[in-house]
Amino acid sequence: MREKEGLMTEWKLVGRPALLLVHMQNAICKAPSPIEAMGHCRATQEDGIIPNIQALQKAFREKGQPVIFVCTYTPDDTKYASYGGFWTGGREIIVNRMGTRDVEVIDELAPMPGERVFYNWPFDIFRHNDLRQYLIDKKVETVVVTGVATGMSVGHAAFVLADRFYSLIVPSDTCTDGNRELHEAIMKWMIPAIALVTTSQDVIAHL
Prior knowledge:
31% helix, globular
């Protein structure tokens, strides 16, 4: 592949692709939120990733390819402890309970009828759900990974997908993190170790 102006243009799609939206849910992407201090809500809006994910959704749906959602939840018997960073202050944060708005996909990216939403805890997208079997049943070979946050759930998702030998594509304009330096570090780590990092429009052009 030849890299031109930061965009990989000479590549071929491997097998059937699926679009994966990681943790594009209200508590992480929309203010006000109990975890707004992490900066992910702000970054989601400022970096403009939602329109780019919408464009990918439209393209995948038109091609009849799977659009998949993973939202994180917190078990009822779990509370986030105050251990440092933005958690300081001696307060317990209750967030992402099942059945609440926190764990719902944001309205702008809402699933269409028939599209699956999987729930995981805490970061591994395959934990506590049947996502792995769903990908097998759909004969998916390539996963296009989008979402929030790059330094937490998106990076982790890329790693566990690579560990299961999926071909990975990460459009850099469809993921973000409240920590800009961490976002950039993870994106650099993915190249060329486990993923093709390109843009949403480049992915659409190759569908």
